[in-house]
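Holo prediction. Input below; ligand is tryptophan.
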Amino acid sequence: MTTRTRILTGITTTGTPHLGNYAGAIRPAIVASRDSNADSFYFLADYHALIKCDDPLRIQRSRLEIAATWLAGGLDVDRVTFYRQSDIPEIPELTWLLTCVAAKGLLNRAHAYKASVDKNVETGEDPDAGITMGLYSYPVLMAADILMFNAHKVPVGRDQIQHVEMARDIGQRFNHLFGHGKEFFTMPEALIEESVATLPGLDGRKMSKSYDNTIPLFSSAKEMKDAISRIVTDSRAPGEAKDPDNSHLFTLFQAFATPAQSDEFRSELLQGLGWGEAKNRLFQLLDNELGESRDRYNTLIERPADLEDILQHGAKKARAVATPFLNELREAVGLRSFVAQTQVAASTKKKAAKAARFVSFREDDGSFRFRLLAADGEQLLLSRNFADGKTAGQVTKQLQSGQALDVRSEDLSFSVWLEGECVADSPAFAESAVRDAAIEALRIALTPVQE
Ligand code: TRP
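Structure of the complex:
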């Protein structure tokens, strides 16, 4: 059996992606999404952006540029779920449910918050000067992003590992308080790609906007050329042998070249290729590698309505998961309809019974069991053994009462639980997609139809 691995990551929309973002995060994420075993959820973390930035134009521009960058880079939106966080109202709703179980002490320990407090203390300010609740609660919002979709793996930079751990912590607490044995939330794991390049910037330090040493990604060829001309090199003259292993220009080249291209460049440097010429080679390489994507990027940027459609489509896919799941979670904490429970009893028998049937029978050992058959006669459930008919009857009644169903998947089958006890099992299905369809059929069969 293979269950697909759900990979989820968010990109905070406060800037324009540069070459380092592309090689370090965007390109590997796009490659990972092509694995047939991956079920990728990639999103624009624009609610997170509001924590760091109060310039609406910059937020808007960045969302557009980041969306266009990922698409131009080859992200296949039919394969992955690509959306804006702010298009999923279930996320802030879940954030509140999680806020109510997250320990304040846990959030006190968040690095980003602590760093701001330390800075204030150092400068003799009030410890909380300039610190918003947004910054403080940031990890809860991030936990909601991750837990909403039950992500298994969360590719992030090292600075985000703590946040993923907090998501586990908060999710576990919720499971414990409201799950009654059921694990609502999957425990996510941070995924740190060791093999992925951290690109050096113009000055050799890590390429980062905060060092002002970046090379633009999809800007004009001229801007890219200008940036490359500012790459710091040593003072060896043309004709003198260069040291490729201590040249960040060479490191940049390698990140985009085939091994054969790198070997060739290396030997040219060893033979004394001048730095000016070396910069030309790097420019040619990047222009070849990125030129096509740059054209796609420019086309996309000029068609914001198309981008909007693509993201709306992504939001729809994401909400198909989020909406029913959040309903379940609302139920779990006690935010339930007043009418469902009482009306259900009356309408269930009449209508739902028509769609699916319970068939009870007695085993040789005298115990009572039942099957639930779908409208087409397919068996959805076979119950466990009950000592008497009355208990078996109560269980079938409860299953039809409209209360949130506790269904647990296991390999290629699933089971149904009531008050922490397994009461019935499904047959084994040929594959997980068929199992999931059967769970869906079960939910429909047991959903009371309103009069
Ligand atoms: N906080 C992350 C960052 O700054 C972005 C982010 C928001 C994220 N929500 C997420 C990453 C969920 C992974 C999963 O890089």
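The chain is about 50% helix and 15% strand. That is the main takeaway for now.
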